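Ticket #4471: structure export looks truncated?
Reporter: QA, pipeline team
Priority: medium

Steps to reproduce: submit the single chain below to the structure queue and open the exported record.
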Amino acid sequence: MELKPYRAVGYRRVSAREQVEGHSLDAQEVHIQRFAEAQGWHLIEIYTDAGISAKKGSRRPALEQLLRDAKEGKFEVVVVDKIDRFYRHLGSLLWALDQLNESGVSFASVQERLDFTTPWGKLMLTVLGMLAEIYLENLRQETKKGQRQRARKGLWLGGIPFGYCTGLCSDCEDPNGKDYCPEYGNKNIGDGKALIAHPIESEAVKLVFEWYVTGEYSDRTVAERLNESYVTLSDGRQIPFRQKGRKNATKPGPFSRDIIRDMILRVAYTGKLPYVGMDSQGKHRHRKPPLEVLNGIHPALVSEEVFEQAQKVREAITRHPLTKNNRPTRVYLLTGLLYCGFCGGHMRGESSMTKYYYGDGSRTDRLNHCIQWSVGAIDIEMQVVEFIQSVIASGKEETDFDFLDLQLREIEARFRRAQELFLAGRIKRNVYEEERIRMESAKKHLRLTGVGATMASLRVIHSGMAEWNELSPTEQKRLLRLVLEAAWVRESAVVAVKPSIAFLPLIGELSCNIGEGGIRTLGGVLRPALT
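Actual output as written to the record:
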């Protein structure tokens, strides 16, 4: 049986400098053709990258197409005039040879007299593939070490975030440099290693957080306001703010709500450096939680307090948007906190053309036939607020923190009871696990948080409730979440509350009944059972 000749392809390349110095693509092609003819191969195509370097990381369209065609089985062997036409970097060469080997494609070099189509050549290619795997794995590990070490020095990794630049003004290539930044073309104000605050972008970042923490703006409305704003330079010029776009994708222009969202979530603006690490393939773990948050050497544009406040506002807005159908919506202060005192279902914030109210979600979804009717939102919210204010008014200025230890003992006793019921087969494992998690969380807050943090929270509660009417609805909602974990309503009255860890020292002094789980009944009868 006569074997078909190999289908061969050639690859030739010259860099821009080599073109000037007279290196010829034609000469490479002649050598490739003669070699293929001498081997009895059928040369079907020659891939060409002209004016492109073969250094590590360079992008060569023809070579990329060659590797894709190899995977599709369009040929059996690749011929080059010299190995450095293919790759100059050893690691990249080994990687490319490994890719060809996986595709069942051999490799030959005219000048070095390498022919991997022979039995010994195939063995050599297999060995090279093994070396490539070892080399690349070692390279990944060394790269990880180098990047982690760089991060620990506080040096930024990856693309430069909006608000910062390298400070290399004399050779600036930043999209928001020429015809935008007042320092463009001037003497360098940075060393290129550490990021510095961009003269204009940094002001935009500060405004975004200043507006957002008020709780009155969404991502979209912040973007709209920023697009209408500008910075006034020392010479009187007014420069409108703009985002810098993405290289080879979008040009500098107006801000979108997606850009504002990413800015609000970027902890780097506090001077921190989030290290996300690399995956098993040596690539950055994009959009993954950071493995470490380190101190950076770049300047902070916002304080950590402002950043944390922005995250709390974002959480509140996510639960309840500021707008719906382009119209402002009401912020229901007890969403996620209010429950039905009869069936235990969530009470949802709802509205009609003329009023706002809370309705039993279980009844609305027809999961049961609870007798609880809808209650006016303003009335029920004021009952909760007045209760909290009465607790603060009747509390001592100096709180007895022995009560925290009493509360901890109650939680541990409840967990022991859950253990007994689980071992007796009276409750399921998921209920037992919930009690275990609840106990561990409470112990963490009561013991590890410490008296100082609890006192700080109490001061926030005191000052916030004193200025209640001056707070925005979002700030009011956030304050209630600091005070309470839950509240229960029956008919038109709040009958029980479950205070937060921070509020326990105050509410514990009142003569109200204490049920399981730390629930305080306010003159009503509410006994949530452990079932």
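Status: closed, not a bug. The export was complete when the record was re-opened. Leaving a note from the reviewer for reference: The chain has three domains: 7-150, 164-316, 338-521.
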